[in-house]
Design brief:
By secondary structure, the protein is an alpha/beta fold. About 40% of the residues lie in helices and about 15% in strands. The protein is built from twelve helices and twelve strands. Helix 4 (about 100-110) links the parallel strand 3 and strand 4. The two termini are about 20 Å apart. Bound molecules: pyridoxal-5'-phosphate. Pyridoxal-5'-phosphate (PLP) binds near residues 69 and 177. Pyridoxal-5'-phosphate binds next to helix 3.
């Protein structure tokens, strides 16, 4: 049996998205910048996709810019948000994704900004009082806090963060890559300047994402060249991937409640089975608190015994794919910067199981059987 429980790293492309993209690949290959019939058709595909994305987020199509994925969108928000607005101070958290931490550290190391890391509680939740102190005592600030963490699932209070940012005239970037199309996001109700999304996290294709930029922010082009994406991000649009992103987003939004209930049930079942069958099992941060943590992530802490040393490897041998930390830093065996922050017990082995609408209870039973065998 093959079981894919690594859906926070990436998801299976929905069959409907594959069908839709393959049809378009056959029929619509013209460059959307061409003015002939084919070009105009491709342009319509891209602009319809932009309308789909903006309508689900309750904003205007003009605020959505397509990118090559979440990393590019995060980099765009940070570099343009800071450099084009003469910002000299930024705040983030130590559990942000590296697509956020690295560009911020790079700007700090080049003496463009001072960088503060906000205090976190044991669950990785940010300290709002500390955020206010930092904002109160600083020049105009760029704040980058993720909506939900990709390793432990902690959800941040983004409405409150947005309100504080507005109060102190700070620019707020929220990395919504893990929550996009899994949770409702109403941009009329959150004070946020940039949010970012990536199609491969919600059953769309890889290498395509987007950034929302609020009307309050002016930035210069992130990539220069042609006039694509209203001069903000040059380069021929990845028409089929953009269409696939919009199709995947539509499917996810239309099935959001059903998928959430189904996946939460699988996660609950796995928690119960692990508690029942594995002595000394623990769960990292607040990942079993469904109100404060992503319903699709279960970050498990196994007792460090000889069997758990090679746990990921052994699960892989049995056909079970899951992750030890963030799979986004492929090949990086230095451990997880997130688990280092919130789960300081080096005597345990961390495994992230992450679920999707395509997982089944049988797959969870098989996974539990194999974990039991490994630990027996
Ligand atoms: N931000 C978060 C929270 C992520 O989980 C990821 C990917 O795992 C990214 C950004 C990067 O997205 P992409 O893989 O599309 O570059």
């Amino acid at each position: 049996m093959r079981v894919y429980l690594d859906n926070a790293a990436t998801t299976q492309i929905a069959p409907e998205v594959i069908d839709y993209m393959s049809e378009l690949m056959k029929s619509d290959y013209a460059n959307p910048s061409s003015i002939h019939h084919g070009g105009r058709k491709s342009r319509i595909i891209v602009e319809n996709a932009r309308k789909t994305v903006s309508s689900f987020l309750n904003t205007s199509p003009g605020n959505i810019f397509f990118t090559s994925g979440g990393t590019e969108a995060d980099n765009m928000a940070i570099r343009c948000g800071i450099l084009d607005n003469n910002i000299s101070h930024a705040i983030t958290s130590s559990i942000s994704h590296k697509a956020v931490i690295y560009p911020l550290e790079e700007l700090r190391d080049k003496n463009k900004i001072t960088l503060n890391f906000i205090k976190l509680d044991n669950n990785g939740k940010i300290d709002l009082t500390h955020l206010e102190e930092l904002l109160k005592n600083s020049p105009r600030t760029f704040v980058s806090i993720m909506h939900a963490n990709n390793e432990i699932g902690t959800i941040q209070p983004i409405n409150e963060i947005g309100d504080l940012c507005q109060k102190y005239n700070a620019i707020f970037h929220c990395d919504t890559v893990q929550t996009m199309a899994h949770y409702p996001i109403d941009l009329q109700r959150i004070n946020v300047d940039f949010i970012t999304g990536s199609a491969h996290k919600f059953h769309g294709p890889k290498g395509v994402g987007f950034i929302y930029i609020s009307d309050n922010i002016n930035i210069n082009p992130f990539i220069s060249g042609g006039s694509q994406e209203r001069n903000m991000r040059a380069g021929t649009e990845n028409v089929h991937a953009i269409a696939g992103l919009a199709k995947a987003m539509e499917l996810s939004f239309l099935n959001m409640v059903k998928d959430k209930d189904y996946i939460s049930e699988l996660k609950r079942y796995m928690i119960d089975q692990l508690k029942l069958n594995i002595n000394g099992i623990e769960f990292n941060a607040n990942c079993i608190d469904f109100d404060n943590s992503l319903f699709k992530i279960l970050s498990v802490s196994f007792p460090k015994v000889s069997e758990s040393e090679m746990l990921l490897f052994n699960l892989d041998i049995h056909g079970i794919s899951c992750s030890g930390g963030s799979a986004c830093s492929a090949g990086n065996m230095s451990g997880s910067h997130v688990l280092d922050e919130v789960c300081k017990d080096a005597n345990r082995t961390g495994v992230r199981f992450s679920f999707s609408r395509y997982n089944t209870k049988d797959e969870i039973d098989y996974t539990i059987e194999k974990i039991k065998e490994i630990f027996s």
